[in-house]
Amino acid sequence: MLPIELSELKSVLNGEFVHGTGGGEATGAQTDSRAVRKGDLFFAIRGRNQDGHDFVQEALSKGASAVIVDREIEKVRRGNVMRVRDSVAALGDLAKRIRSKSGVPVVAVTGSNGKTTAKDMIAHVLGADRTVLASQKSYNNHLGLPITLLGIDKETDVVVVECGTSAPGEIAYLAGIAQPNVSVVTTVSETHLEGFGTIDAIAREKAALVEKLANNGTAVLNMDNEHTKRMSRATTARWTASRSSSRSAAAGWRTTPSPPLPSA
User: Fold this and answer.
1) 115 and 171 share a domain?
2) Structural domain range at position 229
3) pLDDT given for residue 1 in this prediction
4) What is the count of structural domains for the chain?
5) How sure is the predictor about 262, in pLDDT bands with cuts at 50, 70 and 90?
6) What is the pLDDT of residue 167?
7) Residue 264 lies in a domain
8) Is 65 in the same domain as 171?
9) What CATH number corresponds to the domain at position 134?
10) DSSP the chain
11) Which pTM was predicted?
């Protein structure tokens, strides 16, 4: 992660230090106390089975520069503790700031099917002559995408992230954090229909990734799918077409024309 002073962090997260001096800098971020290294921030997040607030002391004992909490915790022996309104939202806020400070271009991929494969393929091609940071596995939600972006460091040339959704508004939220320069939509189908009701609602959700593009961005849209094809009307950014190739049994993807990677 690009280093950030804790004094700046306080402003970014709109938090308050309830313990410690609030001095120093953070050089990484974790949501798993087992992975904390010296200088990391630890975001205490409540999950289905465990509550990160129960592991604050462990994180501090490992050298965390600060822990981020959103509820009262037992008094700690030493270290910086910052209280915020919502730890998950704070994670996203920090990821957005680090992404903005870095200035590196971001490619974001969504779609009902094929987004992980497309993300991996894009990262592989770009990695031929660039240092690429890409989402691990299917890290594509409100936790996984920020964690990926927080991996940006001074060696990163480009970031490739995956954006998933299970409810309306999630793609727009993720796009607001990632601020993509290139948005790729693979396809729209009735996958996860239970969260949206209709395929048109799914299409509107996926289109948010295109709508969030700046004017100098690029949308890559599947012209073989009627729903993604219509997304070209949802942006003032330039767009390019992708089509499934039937020239071989292992169907691939081609884009035409192939634009240069936009600058951040």
Assistant:
1) yes
2) 103-256
3) 97
4) 2
5) low
6) 94
7) no
8) no
9) 3.40.1190.10
10) ---EEHHHHHHHHT-EEEES---SEE-EEESSGGG--TTEEEE--B-SS-BGGGGHHHHHHTT-SEEEESS--PPPSSS-EEE-S-HHHHHHHHHHHHHHHH---EEEEE-SSSHHHHHHHHHHHHTTTS-EEE--TT--STTHHHHHHTT--TT--EEEEE---SSTTHHHHHHHHH--SEEEE----STTGGGTSSHHHHHHHHHHHHHT--TT-EEEEETTSHHHHGGGGG-SSEEEEEEE--SSSS--EEEES-PPPPP-
11) 0.91
